[in-house]
Amino acid sequence: MVNRKELNPDRSPGAAFGARLRSLREARGWTQEELGGRMGYSGQHISAVETGRKPPTKHFSQDADIAFGRVGGADTFEREWNELRNGSLLEGFPEYVGYESRAVEIRLYNVGIVPGLLQTPQYARVLADSAVRRGAITPDQADERVSFLAERQAALVRQQPPMLFVVLDESCIRRPVGGAAVMDAQLAHLVAFAEQPNTLLQVAPYDIGERRSFDLPVNLLTLPDRSVICYAESQAQGNLERDSPSVLPILTAYHQLQAESLSQAASVAMIRQA
User: Fold this and answer.
1) For 19, phi and psi rounded to 5 degrees?
2) Which string of b and e fits 208-218 if b means at least 16 CB within 10 Å?
3) pLDDT value at position 179?
4) 74-128: pLDDT as tens digits
5) Residue 69: strand, helix, or coil
6) Which residue from 61, 104, 79, 89 is spatially nearest to 149, judged by alpha carbons?
7) Most-buried pick from 105, 114, 239, 245 (CB within 10 A)?
């Protein structure tokens, strides 16, 4: 076939997805336009996914399963998409999210950006769209990022919700994101969060200086068996710790940070002022 691009499924998970899509399509004798018609996409879109120029989305994967009659099977495109999405996340994060949904206590510390579990949809969308403009992710991946965050937030709304302890570096409330309207709504959401019976919100002000015990975001989870795990990440790598000798000093440092931070009442007053 003229202009047929050879695919290497070993190049990446996305390439493997595209190669499998092409293989199943050709096994049925369908052109890209014919498959696109069955799925509601253009032939160019099918080509872009097959060659790895466009990443698949959850909806695309579900539509492919319907077109190929694989819904409910053990080897669906949606399952492959989930593995692909998790593979694009920092190491340890997919496992962390699984623990997060059943934790009885969650302790968060963030610098510069309000942590995901406390973000409004508008604030999250601004961050995702900014990543698109920088070329870091595609528009479809931005949609999936916002949807994934909503799923994490929804998982915490249960009959016995976890206790949430949150310490925000002052930069989280001072750094403008998305303009005045978005930022005002986000700050109002933080105030409402602090009023919940299962939450404690504190701000670590700039003037604590060197007494701030963390320079990077930290997430600590207490599980139903009272074991504690820690997830911390840099710009390029995430790390999940489950070993008590490694986690307990981090928990101690978190308590020290809470002691240096403003009380919840003083924190809410600062947020209202901001």
Assistant:
1) -65, -40
2) eeeebbbeebb
3) 95
4) 788 888 877 666 555 555 677 788 889 889 999 999 999 999 999 999 999 999 9
5) coil
6) 89
7) 114
* CA–CA distance, 113 with 13 (Å, rounded to integer): 30
Give the Cβ contact number of residue 26 at 10 Å: 13
**CA-to-CA dists, residue 256 to 194, 251, 260, 266, angstroms:** 20, 9, 6, 18
What is the Cα–Cα distance from 229 to 222, expressed in whole angstroms? 7
Q: What percent of the chain has pLDDT over 70?
A: 90
Number of H helices, E strands in the chain: 12, 6
| pLDDT in the model for residue 162 | 95
- C-alpha distances (whole Å) from 176 to each of 96, 114, 127, 171, 264 are 28, 11, 11, 9, 22
Domains of the chain (ranges, CATH numbers): 13-87 (1.10.260.40), 92-117+157-273 (3.30.870.10)
Reported as a single tens digit per residue, the pLDDT across 115-165 is: 999 999 999 999 999 999 998 878 877 887 888 889 889 888 888 999 999
CA angle (184, 214, 218) in 5-degree steps: 70
Nearest to 103 by CA among 180, 141, 160: 160
- Spatial neighbors of 161 by CB under 8 A, at least 6 apart, are 198
- pLDDT for residue 246: 87
DSSP-derived secondary structure letter, 79? H
The single-letter code of the amino acid at 212 is R
- Distance in angstroms (rounded) separating the CA atoms of residues 234 and 245: 21
